[in-house]
């Protein structure tokens, strides 16, 4: 079993739809929970991160963490074609003084005009 | 957040040769991280590079294959040695801590 599971998609939705992206994990020691967006031929770009259970909102993006269920989500409201990218969840654990990141496989998202 | 310049952005190399990838950060950082992203896959940590000490490698990665240098607090190199087609991947460097990490734009390596 992978430490972090993410449905690779692909996911295709019409412009303006609400998008829900999800990851599950098995390691209770994970401390930070992150979402990255990666456009084709680019490096991952940090969208949001959270440290505790609950919701965090930034514009059209909402990150949700449920530590009891080991489940995290990213919601995108009023989705735009420019949101078309691969979305990666990542989680980190403190090991020997450094946060070690573990990534999900990434979900390829397409927003259709 | 830090800005990372990574080069080359892409290369096509012959099997058996080596390629050195460079990462320059616009601020001093203690740790730099090197990742591999194989086609259609997620990112896998290769090693963590601290300035002034040997890099720490993750399971499945060895120094002879992926030697790393970290001569100062703003620069690091990763060499992919004795390449085979299985080494064809995107290689990325990263800096950061806590919940926030910045990535370079990546080096797309194709081994023929």
What are the key terms here?
heterodimer, A: mainly beta, 0% helix, B: 112 residues, mainly beta
Q: Topology, please?
A:
The complex is a heterodimer of chains A (113) and B (112).
Chain A: E1 4-6, E2 11-14, E3 19-25, E4 32-38, E5 45-50, E6 54-58, E7 61-66, E8 71-76, E9 85-95, E10 98-103, E11 107-112
Chain B: E1 4-7, E2 10-13, E3 19-25, E4 31-37, E5 43-50, E6 56-57, E7 68-72, E8 75-80, E9 89-97, E10 100-103, E11 107-111
Parallel strand pairs in B: 2-11
Antiparallel strand pairs in B: 1-3, 3-8, 4-5, 4-9, 5-6, 7-8, 9-10, 9-11
Short recap of the structure:
Chain A is mainly β and 113 residues long. Chain A has no helices and eleven strands.
Describe the structure.
By secondary structure, chain A is mainly β. Chain A contains no helices and eleven strands. In chain A, the strands form two sheets. In chain A, strands 2, 4, 5, 9, 10 and 11 form a six-stranded mixed β-sheet that branches. A five-stranded antiparallel β-sheet of chain A has the order 1-3-8-7-6, with no helix packed on it. In chain A, a hairpin with a 4-residue loop joins strand 7 and strand 8. Chain B has 112 residues and is mostly beta strands. The radius of gyration of chain B is 13 Å and the shape is globular. Classes of the chains: A mainly beta (113), B mainly beta (112). Chains A and B meet through strand 4, strand 5, strand 9 and strand 10 of A and strand 5 and strand 10 of B.
From the alpha carbons, calculate the radius of gyration of chain B and give it in angstroms.
13 Å
User: What is the straight-line distance between the termini of chain A?
Assistant: 37 Å
Oligomeric state, counting identical vs distinct chains = heterodimer
The average pLDDT value of chain B, as a whole number, equals: 94
Shape descriptor of chain A reads globular
Uncertain ranges of chain B: none
Largest sheet of chain B: 7 strands, mixed
Percent of residues in beta strands of chain B = over 45%
């Amino acid at each position: 079993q992978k430490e972090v599971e993410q449905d690779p998609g692909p996911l295709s939705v019409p412009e303006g739809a609400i998008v829900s992206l999800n990851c599950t994990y098995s390691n209770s020691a994970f401390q930070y929970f992150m979402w990255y967006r990666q456009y084709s031929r680019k490096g991952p770009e940090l969208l949001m991160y959270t440290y505790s259970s609950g919701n965090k909102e930034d514009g059209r993006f909402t990150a949700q963490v449920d530590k009891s269920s080991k489940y995290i989500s990213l919601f995108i409201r009023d989705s735009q074609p420019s949101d078309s990218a691969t979305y990666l969840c990542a989680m980190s654990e403190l090991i020997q003084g450094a946060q070690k990141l573990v990534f999900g496989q990434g979900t390829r998202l397409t927003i259709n005009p | 957040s830090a800005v990372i310049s990574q080069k080359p952005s892409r290369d096509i190399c012959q099997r058996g040769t080596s390629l050195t990838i460079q990462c320059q950060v616009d601020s001093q950082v203690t740790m730099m991280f090197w990742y591999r992203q194989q086609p259609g896959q997620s990112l896998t940590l290769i090693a963590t590079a601290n300035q002034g000490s040997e890099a720490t490698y993750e399971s499945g990665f060895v120094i002879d294959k992926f030697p790393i240098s970290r001569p100062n607090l703003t620069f690091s190199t990763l060499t992919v040695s004795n390449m085979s087609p299985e080494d064809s991947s995107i290689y990325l460097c990263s800096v950061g801590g806590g919940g926030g990490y910045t990535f370079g734009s990546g080096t797309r390596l194709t081994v023929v």
